[in-house]
């Protein structure tokens, strides 16, 4: 996977997200989506409507993670650590992240965050995901990765991946991320720094999925911190 990480960093700084095309091949996407039918790889299932999260459902993967998901976690984390640490410094947050994902997970687990957070989401006609943030505990890595496993226009219609950004004393800014099958969106989990006339300040971001008009949509979420 060849990635222009400088371009990724520039897009994250400017928009709070970056799109990386063709992170997964179609066969890998279909294999990962097919896991959803089997409960064995997963630790829990969540029905969104039951909790007021929207409509649709998702399952959290269990350890050991499927090799493809584990590889994505390990490949992305060290590339995103410099951005995460720079963002925290700019926002005046004292926490810094270690260079390896194993070291960061050890920190999470020592604090009682031991449940894996990578997940697969499934949407059918009429389903959607409300705007939210994936926090899960005290230790939060400020970036995560979302991979679209289905092909828009073929497998489903509607179901756009959306984000909002809330700056102080301003109305929310909407963003629609144009993903195709196998594309990844690297997104801010919670806050990101924006340079103002008096220095950097924090803006708040949320993400979700608009209503699916037809078909079925599957997504993989790669979150780097574990859950309490």
From TrEMBL:
InterPro entries: DUF2086 (IPR018655). This is 2OG-Fe(II) oxygenase. It comes from Variovorax humicola. Pfam families: Oxygenase-NA. It comes from the Bacteria.
């Amino acid at each position: 996977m060849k990635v222009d990480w400088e371009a990724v960093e520039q897009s994250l700084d400017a928009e709070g997200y970056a799109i990386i095309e063709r992170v997964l091949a179609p066969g890998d996407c279909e294999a990962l989506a097919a896991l959803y039918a089997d409960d064995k790889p997963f630790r829990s299932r969540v029905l969104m409507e039951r909790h007021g999260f929207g409509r649709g459902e998702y399952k959290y993967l269990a350890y050991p993670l499927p090799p493809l998901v584990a590889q994505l976690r390990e490949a992305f984390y060290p590339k995103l650590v410099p951005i995460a640490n720079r963002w925290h410094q700019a926002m005046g947050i004292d926490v810094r992240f270690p260079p390896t994902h194993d070291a960061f997970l050890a920190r999470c687990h020592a604090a009682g965050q031991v449940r894996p957070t990578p997940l697969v989401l499934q949407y059918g006609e009429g389903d959607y995901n409300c705007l939210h943030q994936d926090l899960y505990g005290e230790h939060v890595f400020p970036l995560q990765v979302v991979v679209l496993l289905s092909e828009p226009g073929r497998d489903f219609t509607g179901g756009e991946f959306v984000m909002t950004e809330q700056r102080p004393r301003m109305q929310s800014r909407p963003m629609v991320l144009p993903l195709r099958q196998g594309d990844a969106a690297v997104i801010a989990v919670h806050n990101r720094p924006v340079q103002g006339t008096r220095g950097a300040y924090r803006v708040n971001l949320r993400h979700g999925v608009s209503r699916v008009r037809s078909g079925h949509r599957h997504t993989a979420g790669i979150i780097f911190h574990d859950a309490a």
